[in-house]
Design brief:
The protein has one domain. A hairpin with a 6-residue loop joins β4 and β5. Helices cover 0% and strands 51% of the residues. The chain has 69 residues and is an all-beta fold. The chain is globular, with a radius of gyration of 12 Å. The chain contains no helices and five strands.
Length: 69
């Protein structure tokens, strides 16, 4: 993980709708991972799409554990 590539994004939990800041490591490129909601502890799917040209975030999707992202 590269500290200089950590970006924080404001998101809402797909379960409890509480807002929280989600740190993303864009140096990993496009990837899919899981994070637990800091409020309700539900497992959240996180899909991160990063541009291969400039390394910038193209899209960020969050979903419940039973959704297909």
């Amino acid at each position: 993980m590269h500290e200089e590539r950590l970006d924080s994004h404001s998101v809402h939990c797909p379960y409890c709708s509480m807002p929280f800041d989600l740190p993303l490591d864009l140096s990993q490129g496009s990837h899919q991972t899981w994070e637990d909601c800091p409020f309700c502890c539900a497992p959240i799917q996180v899909r991160v799409d990063v541009s291969p040209m400039d390394g910038e975030l193209e899209s960020l999707m969050l979903g419940r554990d039973d959704e297909v992202l």
